[in-house]
């Protein structure tokens, strides 16, 4: 994801955390917040319909999408409610629900790091009245 704050670009690499974050939220029956996390990682509209995956030679593996200012503010508000401490304790439940999937070695630290980064990222974008651009690379 990316946003532009004043003179500096803000960029966050969330690794492959979205899926693990969704699973941890479903494990504690927080489907509504899982949907917010999913929305945060999947932009609402194409950044450039003529070049949905970027202009050559700077193409990404996915469509490049964005959230407008008002959506960023709504997502930031909802993400501030993430029960990160509870999410860090879901490893056994997530492993049981997805036995064939590889999970991070230090599951609690991974959840803490990526969930906190997501909350902070959207809070900064919201406070600066920025759009958020998303892509998978």
Describe the secondary-structure layout.
Elements: E1 2-5, E2 8-11, H1 17-27, H2 31-41, E3 45-46, E4 65-67, H3 69-79, H4 84-87, H5 91-97, H6 107-127, E5 132-134
Antiparallel strand pairs: 1-2, 3-4, 4-5
Protein described:
The chain is mainly alpha-helical and 137 residues long. The protein has helices at 17-27, 31-41, 69-79, 84-87, 91-97, 107-127; strands at residues 2-5, 8-11, 45-46, 65-67, 132-134. The strands form 2 sheets. The protein has a 3-stranded antiparallel sheet with strand order 3-4-5. β1 and β2 (8-11) form a beta hairpin.
Short note summarizing the structure:
This protein is mainly α and 137 residues long.
Key features?
disordered N terminus; 137 residues; globular; two-stranded antiparallel sheet; three-stranded antiparallel beta sheet; 5 strands; mainly alpha
Could you state the oligomeric state of the chains shown?
A: single chain
Shape: globular
What is the topology, as strand order, of the major beta sheet? 3-4-5
Topology as H/E string?
Answer: EEHHEEHHHHE
Content-based structural category: mainly alpha
The average pLDDT score comes to 85
Largest sheet: 3 strands, antiparallel
Share of β-strand residues: 5-15%
Helix content: 40-55%
In DSSP terms (H or I, runs of 4 or more residues), the helix count works out at 6
* Overall radius of gyration: 15 Å
What is the terminal-to-terminal distance? 10 Å
Task: Catalogue the unreliable spans.
Answer: 2-7
Question: Could you give the count of β-strands?
Answer: 5
């Amino acid at each position: 994801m990316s946003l532009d704050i004043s003179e500096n670009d803000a960029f966050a690499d969330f690794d492959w955390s979205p899926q693990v974050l969704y699973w941890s939220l479903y494990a504690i029956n927080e489907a509504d917040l899982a949907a917010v996390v999913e929305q945060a990682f999947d932009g609402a509209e194409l950044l450039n319909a003529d070049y949905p995956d970027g202009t050559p030679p700077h193409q990404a593996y996915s469509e490049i999408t964005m959230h407008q200012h008002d959506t960023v503010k709504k997502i930031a508000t909802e993400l501030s409610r993430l029960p990160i401490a509870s999410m860090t304790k879901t490893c056994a439940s997530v492993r049981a629900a997805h036995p064939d999937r590889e999970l991070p070695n230090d599951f609690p630290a991974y959840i803490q790091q990526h969930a906190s980064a997501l909350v902070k990222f959207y809070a900064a974008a919201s406070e600066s009245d920025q759009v958020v651009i998303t892509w998978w690379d």
